[in-house]
Amino acid sequence: MSNYLKPLPKIDERNRAHWDGAREGRLMMQACDHCAALRYPFSSLCPKCQSTGSSWKEVSGKGQVWSWCVFHRVYFKGFEGEMPYNVVLVKLDEGPRIYSNIIGVDKDKLRIGMRVRAVFDQATDDVTLVKFEEDKS
Q1: pTM: predicted TM-score of the whole model, two decimal places
Q2: Which residues contact 105 (CB under 8 A, 6 or more apart)?
Q3: The sheet that has 128-134: what strands, in order across it?
Q4: What pLDDT, in 10s, does the model give residues 51-96?
Q5: DSSP code, position 102
Q6: Strand, coil or helix: what is 91?
Q7: Alpha carbon of 115 to those of 24, 100, 111, 112: distances in Å?
Q8: Domain ranges of the chain
Q9: What is the pLDDT of residue 1?
Q10: Which value, in Å, is the radius of gyration of the alpha carbons in the chain?
Q11: Cis peptide bond prior to 84, omega within 30° of 0
């Protein structure tokens, strides 16, 4: 897995719980200790109440496609063999929105409102990416 050519996240102390959770097959979101608002991307300040305290909460990983597009141009060499590929914005049932990819669904079948669930793709020994597939349940 050391020859992975796609961009990878930088893991640091602010986001480590998210990436550790993904490696374990769990979708973790930062939650405000004051108002309980979930937030993604991660930050040191709650955008809702400006509190600085936070902890991590496992979420269901279920949601719906909020928006999507299909890339037809290679911006990163690692995507060359997957052209064209989709990028989706998923609104999780718990509220936060997360950018990712839908796997196992033809680009012509993607639609706003499609129900999806998180799946976990081990990219390297250290990084497991959160992706989504159609939720047919």
Answers
A1: 0.93
A2: 86, 114, 133, 134
A3: 97-100, 85-92, 62-71, 115-122, 128-134
A4: 999 999 999 999 999 999 999 999 999 999 999 999 999 999 999 9
A5: B
A6: strand
A7: 23, 14, 9, 9
A8: 16-134
A9: 47
A10: 16
A11: yes
